Amino acid sequence: MDGAAPIACSATTLHAIDHIAIAVPVRNEAARLPKLLSALGVAAAMAPLPVRVLMLVNNTTDASAAIARAFDHPALEVQVATVDFAPEDASAGRARGLAMRMAAMSRGLLMTTDADTVPDPMWIASALNTGNAGADLVCGRIAARVPRVIATPSGARITNAERSYSLLLHEIRHRMDQVAGRQAIGSARPHYMESGACMAIRADAFISVGGLPDLHHSEDRAMVHRAEMGGLVVRYCDAMKARVSGRLRGRAIGGMAECLRQRMSDADPLADQAMLPPELLAKLWRDAMAGRGVMFPDRSRPHGPQMRASDLEAALPVLTHLFDETIRPQFDDWQSRNRVVAA
Question: What's the burial of 197, exposed, middle or buried (CB within 10 Å: 0-12/13-18/19+)?
C-alpha cells in the first residue's frame, strides 16, 4: 500500500460543546452511590461547562433513588428517573442505553459511568479537552483492585496470559489503525480500554450512529465499534481515569463480577473475548497491507471459539513470531515510505 492514509476526520459536523450530560444506570447501589456522586461533584467543579447527571434507577428495592435525589452540589445538577424493566430486559446494557438516550441533547458531551465507580477529579475535564481537540468518542482508563482473584492460581494464570498476549495484540492493532488512518503515523500506542464505566461521546454523534447497541452486556465495546464503522473519530485518553469496584457480587448478568468469579473457579479460564487468534490477526494484517481499509473486529463478541488461558499460552509464541518476522518489518517499511510522502 503506497501513500499515507488520511487521518480520520469526524463524520459529523463538530459543533461547540456547550454542556456535559452524564448517564448512569443504577440498580440497588445505595451503599456505593454516595462515593460516585461525591466524585462527580468534584469532577464537575473542575469543568468549565454546566454538568448534569441522569441517574436511571432501575429494578431497585433499596434507597438508591432517595440518595440520588438528596445529593446536593453547586457544580452538579442531579436528575433521577426510575423504571422497572421486564425480567428478560433487565440488564446493565439495556439500562445504560436508555439512560444515554434520555440524557442526550444536541451540542452536549454525553458521558457514562457505573454506579459503583469513582471517577478521577479530572474525568470530565479530560474528556472535554479530548472532545474539543476533535474526538467524537473518548475512551478513558479504568483500574480495579482484584487481589482475591490474582491470589488464585487460575486468576493469576489468566491475568498473566492476557497481559502478555494483549500487549502484542494492541501493538498490531495500533499499526493497523495507523495504516487505515484511524491513528496518526508515529503516534503513541493507545490504551485501547473500551469501558462504559469511563466513556464519553458527542451527543450529536451518538444520535447520528443510532445510539448504544441494544445488548445486555458488552454494549460499551459494541458502541466503539459502531462509532468506527460510522466514521467517527475515536480517541483513547490516558488522563480520563476511573476506579471500578472489582467486586465479586455484582448486579449485571455477564458483567465484570461474573467474569472475575469464573476466573477464580475455572482451572483454565475463558479469556477476554477481545483476544483474537494469530491466524485471524495475520489475515487482518494482509488485508491492511493490501490497502483494503480493514476495520478491526468488533470486541463485543468472540470471533470463533472463545480462547482460554491455555490457548493464549500456546498462541503467544506464534503471535510473537508473526509480529517480529512479518508485521513489524512490513510496518516499518510502510512507515518510512509514508513519512517521506507526508513530508
Answer: buried
Predicted structure pTM score? 0.91
Q: What is the pLDDT of residues 59-70, one digit of tens each?
A: 999 999 999 999
Q: Minimal CA–CA distance to 279: which of 262, 298, 304, 299?
A: 304
223: phi then psi, degrees, rounded to nearest 5: -65, -45
What does the block give as the cell for 74?
453547586
- Is the domain covering 19-342 a CATH 3.30.9.10 domain? no
- Return all residues near 269 (Cβ < 8 A) that are at least 6 apart: 154, 155, 157, 158, 262, 263, 308, 309
For 38-127, list the strands marked E by DSSP: 51-58, 77-83, 108-112, 118-119
